[in-house]
Amino acid sequence: MVELELYGFDNIYRVKILGQKVGRRELVVGPMQNINFPYILLGRILYYASAVAKRSHASRETIEIKNLENFSSSIFNSEVREELEKMHSLLRDGKEIKDDIKQKYRDIIQKIYLQFN
Fold first, then answer.
1. Same domain as 66, residue 50
2. What does the pLDDT read at residue 106?
3. Are the C-beta atoms of residues 113 and 49 closer than 8 Å to each other?
4. What is the Cα–Cα distance from 29 to 86, expressed in whole angstroms?
5. CB–CB of 15/4 below 8 Å?
């Protein structure tokens, strides 16, 4: 592994990883353009949170995680997806999200979570 901060910005063009120069190229990661990704991620988070919340603190056996393929589609109906998509599009566009919109997002997620617990 190469510690890039040791080289400084001006010298990064000299860095080689596996024989390939790193410099003179720009690598951009994100924002995620796949519109289904946030729903997959949210679905898994809500599922795991629900599984842990329903579990007794005294239980010592491992948690069995079931197939999640249908979970996201069952909790995000078209109305909820439409509301969430407004906010997800702001995230993808890199726009600033106001506090009231963040709170609305939290409220929607909390409502979904409470429905399935």
1. yes
2. 93
3. yes
4. 22
5. yes
> Residue 115: helix, strand or coil by DSSP?
helix
Q: How far apart are CA 43 and CA 38, in angstroms?
A: 8
Which two tokens mark 69? Answer: 């393929």
71: tokens are 């979970």
Q: Which of 106, 109, 100, 101 is nearest to 80 (CA)?
A: 109
Using DSSP, how many helices (H) and how many strands (E) does the chain show? 4, 2
Sequence-distant (6+) residues with CB within 8 A of 109 are 42, 46
Q: Please write the tens of the pLDDT for every residue from 29-63.
A: 667 778 888 888 888 888 888 888 888 888 888 88
For the chain, the straight-line distance linking the first and the last C-alpha, in angstroms and rounded, comes to 44
Judgement on whether residues 83 and 43 belong to the same structural domain of the protein: yes
Structural domain for 96, as ranges? 37-115
Token code pair at residue 67:
């197939």
Provide the domain count of the chain: 2
Rounded (10°) CA dihedral 5, 30, 68, 52: 50
